[in-house]
């Protein structure tokens, strides 16, 4: 199988700083590939090189066999991307934005646009101005835009930042659908281990500009057996556990007067608001961080784990 995205010994220097060092990764058609690393690891820098926003210092990037530095037009024709916030004109309607964008590509029919709008459930708001959209709606419009020309590679840089749990759930389902049903290579970055566990088929872990390891999902999940566990004291554990399971949270357990769920520190506010929003009374929260992302790095880089 030939890779949709292939970086070879990729390096990026900004000024005198080496931001990315010897990064070689391959992502394939039909998989969600997670690019996991803490803030400042170099995820955005790498993605900006892939889509041609940053020059490559050395090494190479190929998309569907076309070199990004040698044959940019052919390479980028296969890419749909959302980097940081989706780029949209607020004073135009959703539909006007889509038509404007579609004009940059050959052969995107009006039917293709309306079908996508329908698929994402945006029909009712598509003729109102984008500046009135919620972040979740902007994200959906951004996805329609990124998918309009049927790209083989879909790239999203920390797409769940700022989304509510429902938005995150929808996004996750769509990305899995795009990879597994449409055969797209989905490349998505995140600093949240548990988010990657719920979404990805394989995960490449990056730290300080270097690839540490690429892992399959079963390997990743195996690591999290005694995972970063959040304990939440609630009035109705059965109902609370059901709400979280249905919301797509992993490793939900039930105890006397409490539930447990596997999540990262940054996700705790989402979980709590999901519960309180459903009328669950929350009395207290605590977290066992023994398998957080940091300790995963320690394990992978050979550092000793403090317990
Ligand atoms: N334009 C720039 N000039 C100097 N340093 C930068 C620039 N862009 C990013 N960096 C540095 O490169 C490192 C990686 O940043 P970034 O790729 O944004 O990380 P991530 O997306 O993983 O959080 C950080 O230390 C950041 O400060
Ligand atoms: Mg970033």
Key features of this structure:
307 residues, alpha/beta, Rossmann fold, Alpha-Beta Plaits, 6-stranded mixed β-sheet, 4-stranded antiparallel β-sheet, globular, binds adenosine-5'-diphosphate, binds magnesium ion
Structure commentary:
With 307 residues, this protein is of the alpha/beta class. The protein has 2 domains: 5-222, P-loop containing nucleotide triphosphate hydrolases (Rossmann fold, 3-Layer(aba) Sandwich), CATH 3.40.50; 229-288, 2-Layer Sandwich (Alpha-Beta Plaits). Helix content is 34%, strand content 28%. The protein contains 11 helices and 14 strands. The chain has helices spanning 43-50, 72-76, 94-102, 110-119, 135-147, 165-180, 193-199, 217-223, 237-246, 268-277, 293-301; strands at 5-14, 17-27, 32-36, 58-63, 66-67, 79-82, 153-157, 185-190, 202-207, 210-216, 229-234, 250-254, 258-262, 282-288. The chain has a 6-stranded mixed beta sheet, sandwiched between helices. A 4-stranded antiparallel beta sheet has the order 2-1-4-5. Helix 6 links the parallel strand 7 and strand 8. The longest helix is centred in the middle third of the chain and has 16 residues, at 165-180. Adenosine-5'-diphosphate binds next to helix 1.
């Amino acid at each position: 199988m030939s890779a949709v995205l292939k970086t070879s010994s990729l390096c990026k220097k900004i000024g005198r700083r080496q931001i990315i060092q010897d990064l070689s990764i391959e992502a394939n058609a039909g998989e969600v590939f997670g690019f996991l690393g803490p803030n400042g690891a170099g995820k955005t820098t790498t993605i900006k090189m892939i889509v041609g926003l940053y020059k490559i210092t050395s090494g190479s990037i190929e998309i569907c066999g076309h070199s990004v530095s040698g044959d940019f037009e052919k390479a980028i024709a296969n890419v749909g991307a959302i980097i940081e916030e989706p780029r949209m004109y607020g004073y135009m309607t959703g539909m006007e934005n889509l038509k404007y964008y579609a004009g940059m590509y050959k052969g995107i029919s009006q039917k293709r646009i309306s079908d996508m709008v329908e698929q994402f459930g945006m029909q009712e708001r598509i003729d109102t101005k984008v500046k009135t959209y919620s972040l979740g709606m902007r994200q959906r419009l951004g996805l329609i835009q990124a998918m309009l020309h049927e790209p083989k590679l879909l790239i999203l840089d920390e797409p769940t930042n700022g989304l509510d749990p429902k938005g995150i759930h929808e996004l996750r389902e769509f990305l899995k659908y795009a990879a597994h049903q449409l055969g797209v290579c989905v490349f998505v970055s995140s600093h949240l281990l548990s988010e990657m566990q719920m979404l990805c088929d394989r995960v490449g872990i990056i730290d300080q500009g270097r690839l540490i390891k690429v892992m399959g999902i079963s390997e990743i999940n195996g690591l999290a057996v005694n995972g970063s566990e959040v304990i939440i004291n609630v009035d109705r554990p059965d109902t609370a556990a059901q709400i979280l399971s249905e919301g797509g949270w992993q490793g939900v357990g039930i105890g006397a007067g409490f539930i447990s769920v596997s999540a990262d520190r940054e996700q705790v506010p989402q979980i709590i608001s999901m519960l309180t929003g459903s009328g669950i009374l929350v009395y207290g929260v605590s977290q066992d961080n023994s398998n957080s992302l940091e300790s995963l790095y320690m394990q992978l880089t050979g550092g000793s784990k403090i317990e």
